[in-house]
Fold these 2 entries.
Entry 1:
Amino acid sequence: MRAVLGRTAALAGAFVAGAVAAHAAAIPHLVRLTRDLQRSRERILASREEERRRLRHDLHDGLGPTLASLAMSLDAARITLAGEPERMDPLLADVRDRLATAVGEIRDLAHGLRPPALDDLGLVAAIESFAEGCAERVDVRFDGGPAELPAAVEVAAYRIVQEALTNVRLHAPDSTAMVLLRRDADLHVMVADSGPGLPDGARNGDRPRPRRGMAAMKEWAAEIGGGCTVTSRPGGGTVVSARLPLPAPGAAGYHHAPPGHRNGHP
């Protein structure tokens, strides 16, 4: 009996020691993951604040003075109309030209907040439109349907695909590409091409030289709680894969896309 108890105690001690050793070995990995997550959050916050700073600057120092100047010009035109009506034509022409410039600035600001193609065409058609000329052939497919996609997810998916196809156009314009969007509990996005793939150093496991486009894709996915990876295929070509979480049905989540474009087309 004592021998059995001794063996049991030894086995229990070995199990505890193994669990402690495994836990201790996992701690550095968890620390690295925590640091990486913190750095990712810091980059996202910095990028968001920079975008807000730019938007405020454009509104305050660009569009604001333009509109104030237009108001003054209209006051001058009103006074001129009362005393020298023959001088009205050049004044109104100047106001018209400056108003057209202001409209262009407003349009640029709106485009920076949300790609207009999403509202004009819907996600699928917007991707198809952008894909024209990016490669010899680009096939776009959506499994599961884009109906009722949250607006934030729609924008992130479009920007990731847009950046991936831009890289194809710049580095492998003679290749073919495929854009696959698949919807289940999450939205999965994949862009694969038949080009040369990532640089040799990245294929061999070395840390690739940072690229703004690759970092931006990861940030767009991380902003809504998802993830994005960029890898090379064994036979050549690059694969961009992203997972974008979707809120559960009926749960409070992101705002949905405008109802007029729920099927991917107007």
Entry 2:
Amino acid sequence: MAEQALVPPSWQALYAPWAPASRRSYGWSTPFILILTYAISAIPLVILMAVAAAGAPGGLEAVAEQGEAAVSGDVMLPGILMQFALWAALIIVWAKAFERRSFASMGFTANRWLARYLRGLAIGVGLVVLLGGVMAALTAIAPGAVPEEMRDMTGPDDADWAVLAGGAFIGFALFAIITFLIQGGAEEVIFRGWLMSTLTARWGAVAAIIGSSVIFGAFHLHVMVSGVAYGLMAVFGIAATGLFFALYAYAERGVWGAAAAHGTFNAAAVLMPLAMMQVSEPERTPGDLFAEVLERATGMAGVEATEVGPHLLVQPGVFLTLSLIVFLRMRARKA
């Protein structure tokens, strides 16, 4: 009987075998677990922003009118770091306390983990370059298909490029990189580590890859504040991005590479436009500019500041193409 108790469970394991005494969460319960843990993790951020806003010019009324843009990035960055680190920690606690399974079963596989993470960093940079190149090509072919503020990334004639070498910007940028590496990594632990492996144990890998990608997109429905058409296209792009990261994690049988690529991608999506705004407005601090950039990068700028057009198809087009390439390579390798 003792030997029989050491046999791993019979259900499919995505990354590594589950512990013999482990339990599965119900598949239908996973979105509710994510919502509950997300709500708990948001409490410190909400308190931090409320305290900061209360002491800022305009107080809480300014936050009600301007949203995140009324709060400095010097406050928001630590808040984002705390929230996503706490969210990932809560999910890990659930997996360890209720499901009783190992870190390896959630994608923390030990095999060449550092090499996978470093390669993921390079892939994240490549994703940013690829998206930028496709957007530049679209701008050259059909300038009217791209919003005016996205066509020229060279900066104004009077741009102060020296400000990017200053201590204020470098320090803020380094902290932002660390924050987004943790934030992106936390999302991978949650969606591709815990969620995808949990759904695989219930319904199989195909359903898990598709289901985790759809749920990942649904967790970004906040973009609907910028209009229904814009929001639907943006969520489609985010779900396509999630599909790529899901296939990446599945192909590597671990989340290290996807976590690094996701974090690098998020950091670049914010820091590149932040740098352009900084050289255009050198008299403002990076923290002052950060909230405005974050609103645009996350699709929260509002209907007046967003534009629906073919440029919104670039992200889903690129990531669906990359997903197809990864899928075909896995098929060829298996054959």
